[in-house]
Design goal:
It is built from five helices and ten strands; from the N terminus they run H-E-H-E-E-H-E-E-E-H-E-E-H-E-E. The protein is an alpha+beta fold and about 240 residues long.
Length: about 240
Amino acid sequence: MFISKSIPLCLLVLCLYHHSAIGASPLSHSCFSPENYTANSPYGANLNLLFNLLYTKVPPTGFALDSTGHGQNLVHGMALCRGDVSEKNCNTCVADAGKELRQRCAYSKGAVIWYDHCLLKYSDVSFFGQIDYATRFSMSNVREVDQNGTLFNEKVKELLSELSNEASDANPKLYATGELQLDTVTTLYGIAQCTRDLSGVNCKKCLDGAISELPNCCGAKLGGRVVGGSCNVGFELYPIVGT
């Protein structure tokens, strides 16, 4: 058994983080630009227009890029929804993300916010097609496996490496989920996803880099995730998608 016997089974179905459908609580955010814009400026107006465009364009496919404005008032943006999220929940998540970024990163010329169901990012510097190494965070369950921690870590890497290959290999959504049976009662679930502006090669590079960080944050934990501005990976002992 990989699961700690001291943990009530009901706890195993609890998430590490709030799902958008439940509380619309962001996982994290980053106001990464050193530059600010002023209230009622052309940049601010272009950012509002960009958010409206992404809100309209993203839900049908779950992903969109766009740019608005010219010169020093040019702003680039991207939104991505998790691969299994419905159009309705995608729409709601992107709308919530725009509202939160306006509050949390007021007047910043570059910012990103993550929810369980989506991410939203904008910048005055074009970032399309480039791996974002600067904005990344990790989350882990506070509980550890009861035994066989080294073997559990190996199984996590095995599953997520398979999903990295699947997501980056001619997959139009750059998204994959899967599961691995650990023993008669324990199933490991995994997810891997890239933003769709990346090439397959860069998607795999991003995902493999995220997987390599898991031992530092989430080794022998019952669940964990590494999330960035270009890709994310995660594992749990309960189904991740469809929630």
